[in-house]
Amino acid sequence: MYGYQPPIDGPAIGAESSWFELSSVTAAQPNIVPPAVTVVRFDTSQELTWAGFQDGRVHSYLHPTADKYSSFTAHTSEVADILVEHHGLITLSHDNLRYYTRGGLLQLSYGHDTFQHMRCMEYLDEQKGHVLVGGDQPSLLVFDVDSSRVLKSVKLDEGTSIVRKAHNLVACGGVRGQVSLRDPRSFRIEHSFQTHPEGVTSMDLKDYLMITCGLSSRMGRLVVDPMVKVFDIRSMRAMAPIAFPMGAFQAKFLPKFSSTACIVSQTGTFQMTDVKGSSSQIEFHQLNTAGDPITAMDISSSGELVGFGDTGAFTHQWANRDDPHLNFRSHPVAYASAPDPPSFLISKDTPLNMLPMPDRLSDDEDEDDLLSDWPEDFIYPMHIKSVPIPPEVTKSIKTRDFMEYAPKPREMLRNQVQGELPALVPRYLGGFRGQQKQRSTLPSTPSSSSGRAAPRSSPGGVSLSLSSGGLASPSPRSQGHPKFQRPFRKYRRMIITSHRFGVEEFKFSQFNKTKFGVLENILPNTYCNPSIQLLYFIPQVQRYCLNHLDDKEFSFVDELGFIFNMLRTSNGRNCHTSNLLRALGQSEKARSLGLVESEEEYYSADPRPQDLQERLFAFLLQTLQNECKENTTSFTHNSAIRSETALQNEQSMDNPLGVPLIDQLFGFTMLEHDRCSVCQQPNTQERNALYVQLVYPSPEQYLFSKPTFAEVLSHSLHNDDLLGDCVHCGTTKATARTQTMKSLPGVLCIMANLTEETERFWRPEKGTRDFSSSNWLPHKLKIRLDEHGVNIQEYSDYLANGATVPSDDTFELTGVVSHILDPGDRYNKGGHWVAHIKIDPTLHGDHKDPSMKPGWYLFNDISCSSAQSDEPIRFDSQWRRPSILIFSQKKLLHPSQVMHPLNPITSDLFYIPNPFGKPLPPLSTEPESLLEVEFKSPSASASASASASASPSPATFDEVSAATTTAASAPESPGIVSSEGGAEKIPDGDDTSSSSAEKKNKSGFSFKMLPPSQLPKDGDLVAIDAEFVALSAQERVGEKGAIVRPGQFGLARVSVLRQEDLRDLPFIDDYISTPEPIYDYLTRFSGIQEGDLDPSTSPHHVTTLKHVYCKLRYLLDQGCIFVGHGLKKDFRILNLIVPPSQVIDTVDLFNLRHQRKLSLRFLAFFLLGVNIQQQTHCSIEDAKTALAVYSVYCKLVQENRFETVLQEIYHYGRTSQWQVAQQRTGPSTISMDTSAIVRPHSQLDDAADPDSTSLVLSSSVGELDSDHCDPNEDDLSDEESLEPLLS
Question: Which of 378, 451, 598, 601 is most buried per CB count within 10 Å?
Fold first, then answer.
């Protein structure tokens, strides 16, 4: 029988059992040899379990009942492998690859001449549909499911028995036991291991670990290897193997744990073990296989279910909890829909037996019964008769201790009883009707969540692809429901996949080939990205925000100005909006309007309100209007030191169109005339508005033809019936109101206000195939004011009346925000928003590029692409609906109407009073330069080197020495390598009892105040380091260990010092107060303790994030060069985009290609001979150490010894297992020749990785600093250093 089986209670071997059998299902049929299960796969989208068999059939079972969902013959030979994705599944046989829907409908069948006993497949890129296929042939094929063709054939030395992909590596297990690790782009071998001599049977990768199972030879015959091989693919070395005496046949990592794997033998014994050997408990379990060998195994993405298959056609499921789930978020299972009842033409001659029966499936007790229904007394249940015991069993019965038993005949199947069902009970006996009622209780799948479009298919099941201008993108993976279509690929939601170290490995550049900046969508509330892009490309709004700066902590004008500055200088890179979203979350009005979504709402699959984008844009306009009207105080007003640039900025704040800018651009006046229906007294009043909300006429108002867009817009601006209080009699009655537009805006903002009833206005006419001739939205409008009110005509209609080409009163469509509904997106049922924007490069001088042509562009979060002219006005109510429309006056699009941006951030920011009343240190009286620094190029001549050696005495860098304890037996650091090639030991100095974190000047400040003349300027080196706190934890789900909910980090401390400050205090050391609740202070890595960020209790200089951000922006705008370690992630959380020419990152300087990143602590120990970060981290200490490490780099490059020393660093690290001694043989003093430091505009840029700083340096979530990303950092294991941040 098929269905749920009672669990077999059996204790674990050697320990208390935590896993139990949930179900055991067989696919065997009577009198037929049961086919072996060849593959078991858990569905990653729905609660289904899939099993492939030796006879080529594929079965699926519902969870948790284990009832059969579908069963079909996939191949004529055995099923070698199965890949399950959102729309269906890919099956592989020895000579064929096919794609099926979950119901068994064939969508694609492909065979290749090189197919030779195919064995395995794996997704290379699931979003693109690229699959790796391997077999006995010495090649690995890259197959594109969407286009049904082989993209690439990679030559191998041997056949492939298994292939797996993790992070940036593709692991291929050979038929002769060799495992090769390849680059997923070039497929070049990075490393190879010889694992099992006779072949690999199982392999899995997770994070930096890889485990393999295989076969070996013993006494001339093949046996299962009793050892599970474990490898560290980060350092490319073998680890201690795991002994499994029963023979390890299959092994797979559990998704919930970093190093726990399930190992199973062919006899059915399986074990959950830690491959690192950290767990002392050994737990074995035994499957009830009745002697049938195990052939397949899989683990669900939730980690709560393990599935096994055996040669007896049984599929076993074991669970570790009472109510297990296959996935954390599953799509509803789609069931077959009942066919529509046939239609009849009834006449007086129609026989009554031809009439359809009424629907009797409801449970309404008041429903009348049919006259043909029999009484309940005449209805009785029908049962299956007991099957007599076969004679061959009764003959062999034996009795022992009052128990009779007999051997099972071979003809009888295990756990099944053969019997005959009675004949179908007639409908009038209640049988069929009962079955129908039972069927109606099955959960129904809403049509909007089916997510698959009806394709146009060619013979053989290969779909026909549409052109780039098509409305939908049907493919073999989008077949199914005929009513819904998936949007074209560039309209779908862009998903940023996070790996172990965040999004650093994600290739953003493949989604944006333009020079326009794009916005990431990995944070809650990033649905506002289209509105931000829309405001950015209104030149007057952009320039006003760039020129604005006030002293409010949360100012939307300032935050938009910061984002606009990043977009202006991004050069096509991706930016973050975390600071603006932070201000949005602190707005009481935004929360009351439902514009702030929590993390649970963002990561849930619940639909968002359709008008969410419209309400957000209206809120932004009203907030910008209020902030423009307020007479806020500029940062420079409170400054004791004023600059001419600041005064010029204040005088230029007024836009040429007048103040406030938002009223001049978007504002218009409506004159309202109303008459009370009781007292008949008229009333006239003026109302100012920033946008128009479309009011659609009722169907009775357009009986003969659909109104044009101009008529609907005119209807929205004229009549309106309102229920309100009369100002004369005070009666609340229906008031007839007439609206008249008194003035025209510069930018007309229209809210579509779309509902299910008004969707028909935006649909193409029925039977129309030429979408260009059926577009309801015009590109241009002619809007005039006369004595009758407002006169709106569409551009084509106006020219048809014989008028000349309009100019000033012409409104041109320049922006469209659309709501995209993708039924195939299982995690985002409510859809997302995209923006079409018409861009004129002459109005945006920062994006001048010969390839950037004026026209329409589509902005879809991190994606930007050009669009055809009719694409923004083409809508389909099934998947694309209008949300916001922007019409701009033609005169505003002239370059003379756009003012140039003036930077409001000046040096006065360093001298304004602390917003929390904290005191500031007095101005520093030190000389202009403490150290005579001579900047040189590494390729300087010998004479230049001689002059460098004659420079003043080197600075003593004792601030980077942490508190150490003398221990003669402790290992010593190698020290700086001398010019002769030997190791030069750093001389020891006086001991210190405190770290640099505790150093303060005589006034008790940890930083100093520099005069304006001593602030860093263009080309000056500044060392920077930042510390962060965790605002939320990150979550990993799935067997690949991907981050589905990145953790959010907030800035806690920033320290910046000049090159001259190596022996002194930094000029910036600010702690940042945060209004958000702190999840974890990360004291081990940040040095921040509870109370340090509270202005009322903290002994440090606590200020606002905006104040610190403006200081760093000043240094960035001045052209300073930032030196640090792991600056990509620091700048990402700081929400700054820094050009690569202004970044010197020591983590990239001291790095071998495709090798691990070195921590700052290890570099300081090897190069400087100091032991930093012993107890905690200090940003001042790390910044000074990074600057010292960079000085050593410059010295090595000048001496042409950098490559040699870098190889020695990695050799020493592998020898010492990257450990840093906790104690040294006495403290040391670091001597550094600062004259070796050079500007990065020389050949030093060539020595570093050119791509190291080309990534986006914007806001950050889900990542730790590079100092802490190393699992062996600070002598901590992976679990000890990372697990507290992930739980």
Answer: 451
Q: Give dist(CA 1139, CA 1143) in Å, integer.
A: 7
Question: What are the angstrom distances between the C-alpha of 1272 and each of 229, 261, 353, 432?
Answer: 21, 21, 81, 67
Using CA atoms, how far apart are residues 97 and 149, in angstroms rounded to an integer? 11
Phi, psi of 133 (to 5 degrees): -125, 130
CA separation for the pair 836, 814 (Å, rounded): 8
Per-residue model confidence as pLDDT tens digits over 499-549 = 655 676 677 888 888 889 999 888 888 899 999 999 999 988 888 888 888
Sole residue written with tokens 């990509």: 1128
Report how far residue 1046's alpha carbon sits from residue 1260's, in angstroms, rounded to the nearest whole number: 10
Helices and strands: H and E segment counts in the chain: 23, 59
**Residue 123: what pLDDT?**
92
Predicted confidence band of residue 1118 (pLDDT cuts 50, 70, 90): very high
Rounded to whole angstroms, what are the CA distances from 326 to 9, 44, 192, 1034? 22, 8, 34, 21
Each residue's pLDDT tens digit, 270-282: 999 988 876 666 7
Which residue has 């001291």 as its token pair? 1150
Cα→Cα distances 1179→254, 1080, 1109, Å: 37, 18, 16
Q: Report the share of the chain in percent with pLDDT over 70.
A: 68
Give the number of C-alpha atoms closer than 13 A to the C-alpha of residue 729, restricted to the C-beta side.
13
Tokens representing residue 537 in the block:
């490309």
DSSP code, position 463? B
Q: CA–CA distance from 572 to each of 505, 512, 801, 858, 1112 (Å)?
A: 18, 7, 44, 14, 22
Distance between CA 869 and CA 873 in Å, rounded? 8
Q: Is the pLDDT of residue 98 over 50?
A: yes
Percent helix, strand and coil across the chain, each rounded to 5? Answer: 20, 25, 50
The CA-CA-CA angle for residues 1219, 1224, 1230, to 5°, reads 100
Judge contact between 100 and 48, C-beta under 8 A.
Answer: no
Element (H, E) at 884: strand 880-889
Decide if 1058 contacts 1016 (C-beta within 8 A). yes
Sign of CA dihedral 535, 541, 547, 549: negative
pLDDT given at position 462: 30
Asked whether the beta carbons of 270 and 317 are under 8 A apart, the reply is no
